[in-house]
Structure formats: C-alpha cells, structure tokens
C-alpha cells in the first residue's frame, strides 16, 4: 500500500547507445513509442490492455502477469503487472528494472519503453474493518517480441537449423558483454528469459533481480554473485 520510495540514480554510462525511448525501434521504423513518455498513466495502460483482461494475458512470470497492449496506431507492447506475492518485493523488482535498464539501448537487450507506479483509493479490509487506502500498482512496459521465449522455441517447435542457433548464441553473448561492460549482472539468465524477435534475434529480458556491480551507482549492493 505504500508509495515507491526509491529514486532513480544518476548514471553516467559512456558505453552503449542513446537512452532515448523508441529510437531505432523495430529496425529503425518510427512509431508512437518514439514520443511515448517514460511514465505512463495507469488509466492509459488499462485502456490498451482492456483493463488487463484474460484475453490480453500472454504469459506469466515469477514477478507478475504479462499482457498485450495495443496502441491507437496498432503498435503492440507488453505490459507486465507486478504481483504482490512475487519472490522479491514488488517495489524492489520495479526499482531494479527501471534503474538498471531504462537508459540502456542494445540490439540484444529488451527495450523498457515505459513504467507506471500509481496509487488509487480502494476500500480494503484491515484488522476486521474496512478502510479507504491508497493501493499502488507497479507496471513495466516493453517492446513486443512476437516469437516468444527461447524456451518455447526450443521445446514447443520443430527445432532450429544451425545458423539460427548460432545467431541466437552470438546475440546472447553480445547482450551479456554489453551488460557486463556497463556494470550489470543479470542473475537469472535462462531460456525463459531470452525473447526472440520475428527475425529470431535474441533479446535478454527479466531484470527483476539484476544488480549493478559498482556500488556507487545504486543502493542495492551485491554481496554474493549468484549468476550471470
């Protein structure tokens, strides 16, 4: 019920592409994403997902449900509605993703195109009585990748030829190299968290437990390196 207290740290990343949202989106084709504000109103996200209807539900992760959002011009994005019962506190997941990848642009990193952390008045039950409380929703918006996860393509399809496999392996390595150069460790790299575009170009996703290696860049210091 509490508002998000974390702030976005000032980051001076000299390596990597420009942080402008939507630049070069889908092979350089301009769309509404190029001018979309970083903070998106909750009502706007409800409208584009039919109020988070089951028909728009396209997947689930440990951190929340994924919905297909359709903009007025037909452009599709993915809206992740963070769950209260996720394995990591919702505010921490939200903070990690926004802080660590909002400013990053790389062909093998999924684009975070917007976010929302907004409260609404709702009647809730607490200690046996009903009260009016501010209930906060945390949402993250990404580019839409039509081919789904690497896991799905490996185990639910007829397989891939060698050239496609090599392209995916190379792309993942390029994405990891970029992340490590800017001081980010993903910590949850697996086939389910690699998404594929319609050209089978891989993009690393799900930065909910990612960490910055440089403690000066964030208040979330890594004590034990648990993954890649």
UniProtKB/TrEMBL annotation:
It is an enzyme of class 2 (transferase). It catalyses: L-seryl-[protein] + ATP = O-phospho-L-seryl-[protein] + ADP + H(+); L-threonyl-[protein] + ATP = O-phospho-L-threonyl-[protein] + ADP + H(+). Signal peptide: none annotated. One of its GO terms (molecular function) is ATP binding. PROSITE patterns: PROTEIN_KINASE_DOM, PROTEIN_KINASE_ST. Keywords: ATP-binding, Kinase, Nucleotide-binding, Serine/threonine-protein kinase, Transferase. Residues 52-228 form the Protein kinase domain. The keyword Metal-binding does not apply. It comes from the Eukaryota. Residues 1-20 are annotated as: Disordered. Pfam families: Pkinase (PF00069). Coiled coil: none annotated. InterPro entries: Kinase-like_dom_sf (IPR011009), Prot_kinase_dom (IPR000719), Ser/Thr_kinase_AS (IPR008271). The keyword Nucleotide-binding applies. Its EC number is 2.7.11.1. This is non-specific serine/threonine protein kinase. It comes from Triticum turgidum subsp. durum (Durum wheat).
């Amino acid at each position: 019920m509490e508002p998000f207290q974390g702030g976005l740290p000032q980051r001076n990343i000299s390596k990597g592409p420009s942080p402008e949202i939507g630049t070069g989106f889908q092979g350089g084709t301009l769309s509404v994403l190029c001018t979309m504000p970083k903070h998106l109103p909750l009502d706007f996200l409800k409208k584009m997902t039919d109020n988070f209807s089951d028909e728009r539900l396209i997947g689930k992760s440990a951190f929340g449900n994924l919905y297909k959002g359709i903009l007025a011009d037909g452009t599709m994005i993915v809206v992740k509605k963070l769950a209260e019962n996720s394995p990591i506190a919702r505010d921490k997941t939200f903070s990690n993703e926004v802080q660590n990848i909002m400013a990053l642009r790389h062909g093998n990193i999924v684009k975070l195109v917007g976010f929302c952390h907004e409260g609404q008045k709702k009647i809730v039950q607490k200690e046996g009585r009903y009260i009016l409380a501010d209930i906060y929703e945390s949402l993250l918006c990404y580019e839409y990748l039509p081919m789904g996860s690497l896991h799905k393509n490996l185990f639910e399809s007829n397989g891939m030829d060698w050239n496609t496999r090599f392209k995916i392996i190379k792309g993942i390595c390029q994405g990891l190299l970029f992340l490590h150069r800017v001081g980010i460790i993903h910590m949850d790299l697996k086939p389910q968290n690699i998404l594929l575009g319609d050209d089978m170009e891989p993009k690393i996703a799900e930065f909910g437990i990612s960490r910055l290696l440089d403690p000066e860049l964030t208040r979330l210091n890594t004590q034990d390196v648990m993954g890649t």
